[in-house]
Write a structure and sequence with these properties.
Layout (H helix, E strand, L loop, with lengths): L10 E3 L10 E3 L2 E5 L4 H13 L8 E4 L4 E5 L14 H18 L10 E3 L8 E4 L2 E5 L6 E3 L1 H13 L9 H15 L3 H26 L10 H20 L1 H7 L2
Antiparallel strand pairs: 1-2, 2-3, 3-5, 4-5, 6-9, 7-8
Helix pairs in contact: 2-3, 2-4, 3-4, 3-5, 4-7, 5-6
């Protein structure tokens, strides 16, 4: 096995993956089983490395066990959605804008597109010094409309039906702050609310497909999957109930 950090580096299982099992840290590298998304991820990370973008891991090749090798980014990765401070929301929006700008007009996308992470929740971001620093886990990365990521980030970072996440007016102001940090134009701001709802609907559909398949291989139990569906339905109902508050904050 190839060990850039030394042949005797210990293996550490990295927890939290919902779709890909067997992710390990070995020294200063992360090993992930090769999947159908691996070729695009390799191209994406190579492009970002070539232009000097520092908000993602580096792709380092493949080892003898057919695992992708990525550089390990030290820091803290939230294991659960929670309330974030305004400065953290601002940094998250800036990180997403930089990621999109780094992929626009590249050979990875068609004109008018960017590479979307498609899962830019806080559970896929490494924090350093208390601030969002880098995205990880690109299993679902693909060309798309920036609002796909903006809507998902606005939902998972700012919006929640849980009382401890703050009143809806506070959440709406954080969505506005996120759009400011991204430097989103007026046309995009008018579409953010619908983008949030669309991402919630996509999440319900995404997890429902796993329940419809026997012998599914994701490292998430049917009970956990149903829990994710039920939670998303509650979040969507809450978001739609407060449409006026969110839309007012964005105008």
């Amino acid at each position: 096995m190839m060990h850039p950090a030394g042949e005797n580096a210990e293996e550490e299982i990295l927890l939290g993956g919902r779709l890909t099992a067997g992710v390990l840290r070995i020294g200063d590298t992360v090993r992930r089983p090769v999947t159908s998304s691996s070729p695009f991820t390799a191209r994406l990370l190579a492009h970002l490395a070539n232009i000097g973008f520092d908000g993602t891991p580096r792709y380092l090749g493949c080892d003898e066990y057919n695992r992708d090798i990525l550089s390990f980014i030290p820091g803290w990765v939230p294991t659960a959605f929670q309330r974030f401070e305004n400065d953290q929301i601002r940094c998250a929006g800036q990180l997403l804008q930089r990621f999109h700008a780094a992929t626009a007009d590249s050979q990875l996308v068609e004109p008018g597109q960017v590479v979307c992470h498609h899962d830019p929740g806080p559970n896929n971001v490494v924090f350093q010094g208390g601030r969002p620093h880098a995205f990880i886990d690109f299993d679902m990365a693909a060309p798309g409309d920036p609002l796909e990521d903006i809507g998902y980030m606005a939902w998972t970072w700012c919006v929640s039906s849980r009382p401890e996440r703050g009143p809806v007016t506070f959440q709406a102001e954080q969505v506005r702050l996120l759009s400011d940090a991204y430097r989103l134009a007026a046309y995009g701001r008018r579409r953010i609310f619908d983008a949030i709802i669309k991402q919630q609907e996509k999440n319900i559909h995404f997890w429902s497909t796993f329940l419809a398949v026997e012998n599914q291989t994701v490292p998430t139990s049917p009970e956990e999957i149903q829990g994710r569906i039920d939670w998303t339905e509650r979040e969507s109902a809450y978001t739609q109930l407060n449409r006026t508050v969110f839309e007012r904050a964005l105008t």
